[in-house]
C-alpha cells in the first residue's frame, strides 16, 4: 500500500470511529421518558389515600409486573408495601411500548374520577340531573373547556338539532356512557381538555 493510500485509509478509519462515537454519545444523551415523567400528574405518593382501592383492584386483576403479582398474593401491610414498591419501580420504567402500561393505569395511578371537588353524577339516564350538563354542552366554550372530542361533538349536534328540554333518555345515556368511559382514564392534569370536560359534564 502506498503512503498516500495508507493515509487515506487511516483518515477513513478515524472518520468512521468518530461517527460511531458521535452516534453512541447521541444515543446516551437522550434518556427514555419514564412513566413518572410522562404522567407527572398521575403517579401516587406514598401518603395517597388511593392505595387501598388500588390494592382491591389488584386482588381482582391480572398484573404483569413481578412485584405486583407478589402483592396480589399477600394481605394487609405486606400487600400494600409490595404494591407501593412495585409501582415505584414501574414509575422509573420507560413508558413507551411498555408491557407495564396496564399495570400503571389500573394499580399505580390517579384517574380522572379520583380528582375533582364535586360529586360524580352516577344517576341513571331517566334522571333529570343530566339535563343541566347537556344544556351547558350545547353552548360549550372551547377557550375554557377545550376542544370537544368526537363523541361529545356528536352529542352537541344532536342537542342543537332537537332543541327541546328536558332531554330524552337516549341523549342522556350517550353523555352518561361517555362519562363512564373517561372516568377511568389516567389523570393528565387540571388543564387537560378531557378532565375539564369531565368536570363540566359528569359531575353534579
Low-confidence stretches are: 2-26
Say how many strands there are.
Answer: 0
Distance between the termini: 85 Å
Strand content: under 5%
Reported for the largest beta sheet, the result is: none
Pattern of helices and strands? HHHHHHHHHHH
Q: Tally the helices: what do you get?
A: 11
Describe the global form. Answer: elongated
Q: Helices and strands: which structural class?
A: mainly alpha
Rg from alpha-carbon coordinates? 26 Å
Helix amount: 55-70%
Total domains: 2
Question: What is the mean pLDDT?
Answer: 89
Biased composition (Polar residues): 127-147
Region (Disordered): 119-148
Characterization of the model:
By secondary structure, the chain is an all-alpha fold. The protein folds into two domains: about 35-105, no CATH class; about 130-200, no CATH class. The chain has eleven helices and no strands. α3 (about 50-60) crosses α4 (about 65-75), α4 runs antiparallel to α5 and α7 (about 130-140) packs across α9. The longest helix is centred in the first third of the chain and has 26 residues, at about 5-30. The protein is elongated.
Descriptive tags:
single chain, 204 residues, mainly alpha, 2 domains, 11 helices
Ordered list of secondary-structure elements with their pairings:
Blueprint: H1 3-28, H2 35-38, H3 51-60, H4 66-73, H5 76-91, H6 101-107, H7 131-138, H8 142-145, H9 150-162, H10 169-182, H11 193-201
Amino acid at each position: 500500500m502506498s503512503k498516500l493510500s495508507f493515509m487515506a485509509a487511516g483518515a477513513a478509519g478515524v472518520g468512521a470511529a468518530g461517527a460511531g462515537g458521535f452516534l453512541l454519545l447521541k444515543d446516551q444523551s437522550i434518556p427514555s421518558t419514564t412513566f413518572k415523567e410522562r404522567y407527572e400528574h398521575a403517579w401516587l405518593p406514598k401518603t395517597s389515600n388511593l392505595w387501598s382501592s388500588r390494592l382491591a383492584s389488584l386482588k381482582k386483576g391480572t398484573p404483569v409486573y413481578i412485584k405486583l403479582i407478589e402483592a396480589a398474593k399477600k394481605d394487609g401491610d405486606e400487600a400494600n408495601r409490595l404494591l407501593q414498591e412495585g409501582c415505584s419501580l414501574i414509575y422509573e420504567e420507560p413508558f413507551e411500548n411498555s408491557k407495564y402500561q396496564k399495570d400503571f393505569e389500573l394499580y399505580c395511578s390517579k384517574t380522572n374520577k379520583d380528582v375533582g371537588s364535586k360529586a360524580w353524577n352516577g344517576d341513571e339516564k331517566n334522571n333529570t340531573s343530566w339535563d343541566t350538563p347537556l344544556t351547558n354542552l350545547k353552548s360549550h366554550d372551547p377557550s375554557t373547556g377545550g376542544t370537544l372530542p368526537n363523541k361529545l361533538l356528536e352529542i352537541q349536534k344532536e342537542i342543537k338539532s332537537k332543541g327541546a328540554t328536558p332531554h330524552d333518555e337516549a341523549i342522556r345515556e350517550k353523555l352518561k356512557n361517555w362519562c363512564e368511559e373517561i372516568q377511568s382514564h389516567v389523570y393528565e392534569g387540571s388543564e387537560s381538555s378531557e378532565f375539564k370536560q369531565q368536570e363540566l359534564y359528569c359531575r353534579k
